[in-house]
Amino acid sequence: MNLTINDTLKWMEKINGKIQTNKKYLTSLDQAIGDGDHGINMARGFQEVINKTTIVNYETVSDCFKDVAMTLMSKVGGASGPLYGTAFLKMSMAVRGKTSLNKELFTTAINEAIMGISQRGRAKEGDKTLLDVWQPILRFLQEHDSINWDDFESFAKNAMEATKDIMALKGRAAYLKERSIGHLDPGSVSSYYLFQSLAEVVREGEE
Description:
- Helices cover about 70% and strands about 0% of the residues.
- It is mainly α.
- Strands 1-2 form a two-stranded antiparallel ribbon.
- Helix 2 runs antiparallel to helix 3 (about 40-55), helix 3 packs across helix 4 and helix 8 (about 150-160) runs antiparallel to helix 9.
- The longest helix is centred in the last third of the chain and has 21 residues, at about 185-205.
- The protein is globular.
- It starts with a strand and ends with a helix.
């Protein structure tokens, strides 16, 4: 793995594309168990990310991550902005000054992101939040010396789909208690799009 600045920009473009395409779907998932605005908020936020990142010449991956973080925090409403913004801010801090990321650096960045998300949202794996995708992805990275990106994408998808069977313990969905079971967590779905996009970018770079 060698995630360059150019790869990082492509990653953001792919995330935005998937979020825009699936905006209504994400919103429908959130209408079932949340505030009903996840798709709308994420679409607005990542479009603003692209508006920002396409006009800046970045010298480091960390600078790009920092701009992504600040944009999401300022442009996304609800819980999504602070949580995703915190994730990218912690990733930026973990790889400060780096012009490209190998697997070890990226794994460190994801670990820092998770700690930031946990602290900000006061959540943990098993609470039916985006951490139910991020935490398994961290384990996948830690347990594999070399990454098969097809397996990585499938693993993220399986983690996302597993949230359907979890009872929500955090956020608006927690008020539904047992009735939250049987619904996918919207944040886990958008997180799957994020990691799916990463896998696509890395695969394309290896071709």
